[in-house]
Write a structure and sequence with these properties.
Blueprint: H1 3-29, H2 38-67, E1 78-79, H3 88-110, H4 115-128, H5 131-138, E2 145-146, H6 147-167, E3 172-178, H7 188-191, H8 195-201, E4 206-212, H9 214-218, E5 227-236, H10 243-248, E6 254-263, H11 273-282, E7 291-294, E8 301-303
Parallel strand pairs: 1-2
Antiparallel strand pairs: 3-4, 4-5, 5-6, 6-7, 7-8
């Protein structure tokens, strides 16, 4: 088993957590009417805490049985994987931690927790929910807990917390883009055997962006509310995680930087809960828009 396949497991686990969080959110929407009493809100918080603790424990137990049961164990230790995959995987960790933090915050607000407490607890839970992987990694003889992963997780949760405390809103939002690469077909067992696997496993095809909400930052009256500016990062020419392994077969991994426009649908005024949810999901990804790609030693490319 290689590190990329293992990273796929991480991604799948994070998606599961996100899905379970959404379920908790949906279940609590109906219990937050203005007439709800303080006692009802406390009860909701207890229910949320119990569900979160249960999911956390089941996730830890499930991963241990499913992925680590047949692996050799050792004392808890760290290892350094910061050089692998040109750090694209680390950016992905930050992206996931941000949305786990935000989704927990939204859930806590729905059940009546005050704004500041919801921000703090939501951010903490976003980081905490990603810890089981590192804990189990730390006891695995094959892997080890990753300093880089922990720092990336912390950075993603901090990006959410700092903005909410400082600006009361999210002005800079991480987004994900996938642009299919030609590398997966050369090592499909690692980079993906079909489109669905490639989205999760092919770091050559993943692009992460920071999207700046120009309308809310500048308050320009006539600026289009759906148009953001974004900077992005990706990498290419990677069949293996470590640079030296790629170089041995004649590959030269490179970094890719992006600057361009981005769509932000949540700025569209609406009172419909359905459309608010649709816009929120759409704003997790970057849809096609005019973009410049920069690479060291290469001409600037225009993309859409």
């Amino acid at each position: 088993m290689n590190s990329l396949v293992f990273n796929l497991k991480k991604v799948v686990f994070f998606i599961l957590l996100l899905e379970l969080s959404t379920i908790v959110l949906a279940q609590n929407i109906s219990s937050t009417h203005p007439e709800d009493s303080i006692q009802r809100k406390r009860k909701n918080l207890q229910i949320f805490s119990s569900i979160s603790a249960g999911m956390y424990g089941m996730g830890l137990l499930g991963m241990n049985q499913l992925w680590y049961q047949n692996q050799s164990r050792t004392s808890f230790h760290f290892f350094n994987d910061n050089s692998q995959w040109m750090q694209v995987d680390k950016v992905g960790h930050g992206y996931t931690a941000f949305y786990l933090s935000e989704l927990n915050y939204r859930t806590l607000r729905k059940i009546g927790l005050p704004e500041k407490k919801a921000i703090g607890w939501g951010s903490g839970l976003g980081f905490l929910w990603m810890l089981p992987i590192e804990i189990l990694d730390g006891f695995s003889a094959t892997y080890g807990a990753s300093y880089g992963d922990l720092m990336a997780n912390f950075s993603g949760s901090a990006l959410f917390l700092i903005q909410k405390f400082s600006f009361k809103k999210i002005l800079i939002r991480p987004k994900f883009t996938f642009r299919r690469s030609s590398w997966a077909s050369q090592r499909p067992e690692v980079l993906g055997e079909n489109l669905g696997q490639e989205i999760l496993k092919d770091y050559n095809a993943q692009i992460y962006r920071l999207s700046f909400n120009v309308k809310k930052i500048t308050h320009w009256k006539n600026y289009p509310c759906v148009l953001n500016l974004a900077i992005g990062y990706g990498a290419g020419e990677m069949l293996y995680g470590k640079p030296a392994e790629n170089q041995l077969i004649g590959l030269k991994p490179y970094r890719r930087y992006f600057l361009g426009l981005d769509w932000h649908f949540s700025n569209i005024p609406t009172q419909k809960r359905f459309w608010k949810s649709v816009f929120y999901i759409l704003d997790m990804v970057s849809l096609p828009a005019p973009t410049l790609e920069l690479r060291k030693g290469k001409k600037i490319k225009f993309r859409f």
